[in-house]
Design brief:
Elements (H helix, E strand, L loop, with lengths): L19 E8 L5 H20 L3 E9 L11 H11 L5 E4 L2 H4 L3 H12 L4 E4 L4 E2 L6 H32 L11 E4 L2 E4 L1 H15 L4 H10 L12 H9 L7 E3 L2 E3 L5 E3 L7 E3 L9 H18 L18 E3 L6 E7 L3 E7 H5 L9 E2 H17 L1 H13 L1 H32 L5 H48 L8 H7 E6 L4 E6 L4 E5 L4
Parallel strand pairs: 1-2, 1-3, 3-4, 12-16
Antiparallel strand pairs: 4-5, 6-7, 8-11, 9-10, 13-14, 14-15, 16-17, 17-18
Length: 521
């Protein structure tokens, strides 16, 4: 028997002779043939439904293929739909069900309220819910919660299935690494790519750096498996991947309860399968390559599995280019006599993209000593007023403002409850309710944003006050610096902004920024 469902018209802000701009949103969670057929059916259904209504103007279909619904950030078409709604191109959105729209309660309600604030309604066909009727919000919250629970259940079932395949060794590698192809769900060697992998290992064993290897491959016009230029991290990943020895380690990453992916550093079991497929390099060469990479990392002061420098050099990662925002890299220069210089990474790669030239490390050290000695000498005039200001009126005023905002938010909530009560007793027309409730929701969002901003200011102000107090105590007792001290620099300086080759700005941990000239010594 056919089911006929009436979709109420949006009458809140438009007259009867004005047509609604209507679009539909569709999604399937996998890219299998069966799911693609379901997506095609949804698209055909909504296009025909919208075009058949003389009061509607068809504004297109938005559809995400093979994408999970657990997080809206991973659905580009949904984000485009919201953007078009905010640009007043769409008045009504049709979708199959809450689970197709979002499997996360917070996301679902957040998007619905965001659209309501701009008078855009959403109609969920299976649940027969139109957000133009705000008494449906409680039901929407319940059903979207069920959808989220269903998503979590499906995820847990999927994880259990994958774990079983991990344990019995039947798990199939969906995306083979560079050097391999999939054939009948098994890894087979790609001869051309395998030769490149062996070449990379040969270069690593010869002591060449990963960036140098990547640059050489790019110079030869070679591309990665995804047809992208080579990078140092890609080379390092190949050199550290045990798959090239014929072994495989499963569950190197995992997904938590919030559907966020993490590197598995021991939080979950791992499964090591030896002789899983044909090897490209020997285990002996692989082990030697690991020692070479580790030794090179120790020499350069780079921590394994990160791109962050260790505290080998005080300035590492702290010098920022004011022109392009890139960090500076330590290099050894020579003009008859060797000296240490710091250079903008962007300028090294392309002087056309950034014109900032290098600065000498000795000049930077001298500038820091000059700046700190000024603070030590003038701490009563500079640091004491700063500490008193950070401890004083601003934070007290912020606390008072937060209390006032809390009172306004409470009053706003009471007004919302009163509106709902009036609507339930039919003392209030739905369109009047919608307009008033939307105004209250917008006001609540504005008040909450102001409160969060003040809370952040209090946190930052408190941290800055603590850091300023510590710097003042140091300056009151310290003797003038006669030479650069890396520990003192790291303790009080957040970063150094290179404004020009003649001037830098020291941004202190207390929030104070002091400029100093770079005078060659």
């Amino acid at each position: 028997m056919k089911k006929v469902t009436m979709i109420p018209a949006n009458t809140a802000t438009r007259s009867s002779d004005t047509k609604l701009c209507v679009a539909a949103y569709c999604r399937v969670s996998t890219d299998s043939d069966k799911q693609m057929e379901s997506l095609d059916a949804q698209k055909d259904h909504y296009e025909a439904l919208i075009k058949a209504n003389p009061q509607w103007v068809f504004k297109g279909l938005y559809f995400d293929e093979g994408i999970t619904g657990t997080k809206k950030e991973k659905r580009p078409e949904l984000r485009r739909l919201i953007f078009d709604c905010e640009n007043q191109e769409i008045d009504l959105v049709l979708t199959k069900s809450i689970s197709r729209f979002a499997r996360n309660t917070a996301d679902c309600l957040g998007m619905v309220r965001r659209l309501l604030s701009i008078n855009v309604f959403v109609y969920f066909e299976e649940e027969d819910i139109n957000t133009g009727s705000m008494e449906s919000e409680l039901m929407l919250s319940i059903l979207s919660g069920v959808a989220e629970a269903e998503s979590a259940s499906i995820s847990e079932n999927g994880k259990w299935s994958v774990q079983r395949r991990f344990q019995n060794g039947s798990y199939k590698i969906a995306t083979p690494p560079y050097g391999y192809d999939n054939s009948d769900k098994k890894l087979v060697v790609n001869a051309m790519q395998a030769e490149m992998v062996r070449s990379i290992f040969t270069s690593v064993l010869a002591g060449e750096g990963c960036q140098h290897i990547a640059d050489e491959l790019n110079r030869r016009g070679l591309l990665t498996k995804r047809n992208r230029p080579w990078t140092a991290s890609t080379i390092r990943w190949i050199a550290r991947n045990e798959a090239y020895t014929g072994d495989i380690i499963l569950q190197k990453t995992y997904t938590d309860e919030a559907f966020l992916r993490h590197v598995n550093t021991g939080e979950r079991h791992k499964y090591w399968i030896r002789n899983h497929h044909d090897a490209i390099v020997s285990r002996e060469d692989f082990e030697i390559a690991q020692r070479v990479i580790a030794h090179r990392g120790e020499v350069l002061g780079i921590e394994q599995n990160t791109e962050k420098y260790l505290c080998r050099y005080p300035f590492s990662g702290k010098i920022i280019c004011a022109e392009c925002g890139s960090t500076f890299k330590r290099r050894v220069h020579s003009n008859g006599q060797k000296y240490i210089a710091w250079c903008c990474k962007t300028h090294i790669q392309s002087s056309g993209q950034c014109t900032m030239k290098f600065i000498r490390e000795a000049d930077l050290q001298h500038a820091f000593c000059t700046m700190l000695n000024k603070l030590i000498f003038g701490h009563n005039e500079i640091l004491k007023p700063l500490v008193e200001g950070l401890r004083g009126v601003k934070i007290r005023n912020s606390h008072t403002a937060i209390k006032e905002l809390d009172a306004k938010l409470k009053d706003n909530m009471e007004k919302q409850k009163a509106l709902v009560s009036l609507l339930a007793k039919k003392y209030l027309e739905p369109d009047v309710f919608n307009q008033s409730n939307n105004e209250l929701l917008q006001e609540a969002e504005r008040l909450q944003a102001q409160k969060e901003l003040l809370l952040n200011q209090i946190d930052n102000g408190s941290n800055n006050a603590t850091e300023a107090t510590l710097l003042l105590r140091y300056a009151m007792k310290a003797a003038m610096l006669k030479s650069f001290d890396g520990e003192i620099f790291n303790r009080y300086v957040n970063r150094v902004v290179v404004l020009s080759r003649d001037e830098v700005g020291f941004q202190l941990n207390c929030g104070l920024t002091l400029r100093e000239r770079l005078d060659s010594i």
